[in-house]
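Annex B. Sample input.
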Amino acid sequence: MRGVLRSMALMAAVAVNWPAAALDLEEAYALAKQADAAYRAVEAQTQAQEEGVAVARARLLPQVGAVGSIGKLWVERRFGGRRFPVSPSDSWSWSVNLKQPLYRPNEWESYRQAQALSESAKARLLDESALLFQRVAKAYLGVLDADAQLKVAESDVARYQTALRQAEEAFRRGQGTRIEIEEAKARLDAARAQLLASQGQLEIAERALTLLIGREVVAAALKDLAERHTLSQAILAKPASEWVEEAKRVNLALDALRKEVIAAQHKVKQQLAGHKPTLDLVAGYQQSRSESQITLEQQFKTASVNLQATLPLFSGFGVSASVRQAQALLRQAELELEQKTRELEQAVLDAYTKVRFGQSQVLALEQALRSAEQAVVGTRKGVLAGTRNNVDVLNAEQAAAEVRAKRIDAVYQLLGSIVEMLVAVSKPPEEAISWLAGASGPSYGLESN
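Annex B, continued. Sample output.
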């Protein structure tokens, strides 16, 4: 009864909260992009790096400034031992100055470094979107798995309730035994306990997806993806070595680290440029006016154009230290890229292995479920023939239910491994979603990238 009431409550919640359509994986991913703080933080970091390019470029463009002043002068004059009264005078001046860098190797390398960091940030944002898709997909599959397990538990409770009523009725007619009643009660109690555990697991799974997408989730509103586990066939059609090579070529996290290595190389060049001279074009124009008792309304107009060269001579060994620091950071970036490449290879091989064994496990459990269901049929026939009893039927039904639950869990675990593989080879989330939703053809487009 509790399971029936829960199902009715879920249906009512769906009718109230989701009047338009069920929540599919594509919509869940779109909501998560708006709600997930980790993704939005990377998005903000990407924007900051893009502005860093503009900041670095500005140091290579003309710098123009204007200065103006107005005031009074008080002049005290002494002549021939006589002191004349202090007389005030007015003055003003303004000037416009322009500086155009001509040869600034350090600024050019800083600009190239900013460009590399911006490209790295863009790659990291795409990688973060793929990781977000993976989190959403696994949380989505977790809800579907928990909901399917709950349905199995509810079916078990209903079946054992029926078995208990039949055992009690048979006992009243003198055709059953007290042992059969007690056995049915024991199975029913165990099934109810499992039902409670399944309800708790479903609530946890729903809450995890709710927090991720920022909207209330009801399991009954989700579109099921269980049949899409056959996508594993397309993945296993290619050997693992080819997937590893493809991942090394297109993985976004690796691409981001490669860009960071380039940025570190430009950083080294920037610090080395600290030993080099710089050359600027400097131009200015100034007007001023002042007057005194000697000079009345004296005005000046001055224009100048200069080439200004600067040669660094000694900076307390700071430039040399900066070069060594930049070289160490470059080595760090190169080692991080090497380590990430190894981790990616391991991740692809692990995901491929999970898909391979997951597919085999699903096939094996499907065969086991057919055998278990056939055993239930045979046991029931044995009861009619007098060679089996109701306890044997309960045992056979319980074995079939356990295999059914394992098969459901194996299907969703396989789907999760498929998602891991798609993310490892940096498949765009939109493509991965379309494949999981069944919008693509038989090969699911996995051969192209």
